[in-house]
Amino acid sequence: MTSDVETLSFKGLGLNQRILATLESLGFEKPTPIQAEFIPVAITGVDCIGQARTGTGKTAAFALPILQKLDPRSEAVQAIILAPTRELSEQVDREFRSLAGKSNCETVLVVGGRPLGPQLSALRKCPQVVIGTPGRVIDLLQRKALDLSQVSFTVLDEADRMLDIGFRKDIERILSSCPEDRQTLLLSATLAEPVQRLAQRFMKEPALVDLSEDHVVVDTIEQFYCTVEHEQKYGLLIKLLLNERPSQAIVFCRTKRKAHEIYAKTKKNLPDVAAIHGDLPQKTRDRVLKQLRDGRVRLAIATDVVGRGIDISGISHIVNYDIPESADDYIHRVGRTGRLSSDFHGRAFTFVTPEQGPELTKIEMRINTLLHEYRFDGYNAFQSREVGTVSENETFEPTPVSSSHWDDILSDLE
C-alpha cells in the first residue's frame, strides 16, 4: 500500500528511478488526475482507454509508461503515436522528447506540410518512436519507408477528433500493419460511438480510465452568450474587446474564409493580431503558435485548427464568433482558456443569432450548464432594438491590460 505522500507524487505510480529523476528535473511535482489513474494501468501492459478533457496532461499519461518499457537496444520502431493535426503532433513530440530526458530514446516526427526528405533520413536512423499524423504515416508505409511490424505500442491521441476529420480508414490501415500482440492506448475527450467501434475492433478488453466530469467545462471558465444579428457580429466583437480588454484572446470562426476576413479587417489598425487556419503555410502557423505562447500575439483569429489539444496557458478570453458546429467543439474551444492556474478565471463568449437558439440549447445540455447572457449598456446588436443594460449585481469587471492604446484603436474600429 502506498503512503499518502506517494499517492500525491509520481513515486506511487510504478515508474522507475530514471524517469522519476527526469520528472524531478523538469519540475513535475505531482501527477494530474488522468496521469495518476492512467499510468499505473498502462504500465501493466493492458490496452487502456483514457477519457479526459484536453489540457489535463494526457501526453505524459501515455508517454511515461512507453518510455519505461522501451528497449533502447532495439533498432526497430517500437511505438507509433498518432494525432489529428500537425500542431498537436509537434506538441506531443516536444513533450515526449522532454520526458525522455537523458535516455537513448530517439523519436521522429512525421507530418504533412513538412519536407519529406528529412523525415525519410530520420527514419533510416532506426528511431524507437514515431509520432505523426495518419496521412503522412500512410504515405510512408506506401513508400515502404516505415516498418511497423515490430511495434509494441500504439497510441491514438485525440481519437475522437481524428475520426471527426475523416482519418478512420487510415487509422484502421495503420493499426492493421502493427502486430496483434501490441499494447494499444487510446486517449479521447469523448467516447462517441465511432470511437467505441474503433476500440471494439482493435483493442483487447481495454481498461477504461474515465476522468470525464459532469461539468465538462472546468470551473475556472466563466461562460456567456451574446445575442446578435449576423450583420452586427463584427461591431459586437469590437465592443466586446473594448469592454473586456483581454490580455490575450482567440476568436474562433467556422470557416477559413471568415477567419481571414475578420483578420483582414482588424490587422490594419489593431496591434498584435494574427490569423491561424488551414490555408496558411505550416511555417506561418508555427510562428503564430509560438508568438501566442510567448505572449507576442494578443489577438488570434482562428478556425478549429487550434480548437483541440494545443497547450497555450496564457489565453484569458475565448470568443466564438461563429457558434461551433457541435457541442464537443464548443468544449474544446473554450478549453483553451482558464488554464494558467487554479485561481485564474478565463472567460468565454459565444455569439448567437436569433435562429441559433436550439444550437445554444444543445451546448448547454452537453455541458450541463446554463450560459449567462452578456449584455452591453446602450449597444445595439440588432437593427431594431437596444440591448439591455448589465445589472449592477453582475460581476462583469474588465480585465486589466498592458496596452492602453487599444481603447482608442478599438473605438476607431467600431
Automatic annotation (TrEMBL):
Helicase ATP-binding domain location is 39-209
A GO cellular-component term linked to this record: cytosol
Q: Per the record, which residues fall in region Disordered?
A: 390-414
Q: Report domain Helicase C-terminal positions.
A: 220-382
Q: What's a Gene Ontology MF term here?
A: RNA helicase activity
The organism sits in which domain of life? Answer: Bacteria
Coiled coil residues, start to end: none
Q: What residues does the DEAD-box RNA helicase Q domain cover?
A: 8-36
EC number(s) given by UniProt: 3.6.4.13
Pfam families reported for this sequence: DEAD, Helicase_C
* Keywords (A to Z) from UniProt: ATP-binding, Helicase, Hydrolase, Nucleotide-binding
Gene3D superfamilies tied to this protein: P-loop containing nucleotide triphosphate hydrolases (3.40.50.300)
* Residue numbers covered by motif Q motif: 8-36
PANTHER family from the UniProt entry: ATP-DEPENDENT RNA HELICASE DBPA (PTHR47959:SF1), ATP-DEPENDENT RNA HELICASE RHLE-RELATED (PTHR47959)
- What does the similarity note say? Belongs to the DEAD box helicase family.
Q: Write the protein's name.
A: DEAD-box ATP-dependent RNA helicase CshA
